[in-house]
Amino acid sequence: MTRPRPDVLLLDEAEARRVAGLYDLPVTGIIGLLIQAKREGLVASLAEEMNRLREQGNFRIHDALYRRVLEMEKEE
User: pLDDT per residue over 33-43, tens digit each?
Assistant: First the structure.
């Protein structure tokens, strides 16, 4: 019995992104994953999730990107 290939592989390494590029595999960051989760109804608020990343995860999100994501997803 063969196992199906995963639809998503989560990695946080520059080398992994480079190798993915060599194989023309799509690469999405955490913000992209949050946007997709919001669109699929899995996340109620992008602002809340990005704030949680900033505060609890010590994750840096540039203010301009933060505002652009909220504007793009009509949360502003």
Answer: 999 999 999 99
